[in-house]
Amino acid sequence: MDQPINSSELPTSSGATERVTPISGQPLVIPVIEEQAIINREVVESGRVRLTKTVHEREELLELPLKQEEVQVERVPINQYVADGAPPPGLRYDGDVTIIPVLREVVVTRLLVVEEIRVTKRTVNTTHKQPITLLHEEVQVVREPFSNTVSPTDSSPVRPTSAE
Hints:
Elements: E1 47-81, E2 92-94, E3 97-105, E4 111-145, H1 152-155
Antiparallel strand pairs: 1-4, 2-3, 3-4
């Protein structure tokens, strides 16, 4: 129930306002209008990116330091009897040489040192070279502009290649 407002009852150009009173004694209804914005989002394809991975192989010579031990065995004939009542000779060392006496019991019950076995151990350092294959991956990124038509090749996902 909106009532018309007389133009003489509106604010004047000097800025003074006059009191607006309804005509018929009913309350004056002034509609208040409010605008509302509704914002919607939608996904729009603006371009595509194609990734291409290339695997490169290169041969490289790998040098590994190796350590090995070599043993030299030397038999030295002695043929000496052990003195009566003396203990039999035992294992002994002469620098890096290990001396192991070999004994034989003789019927006379005397010990005869038949021979000595001399074991020399030395360490030899060598370098072993072995070729190996190393893999190197390179990825190329290509930006493709947006197009409204989708070809069958564009709709397939990019599958990574195996580098095994």
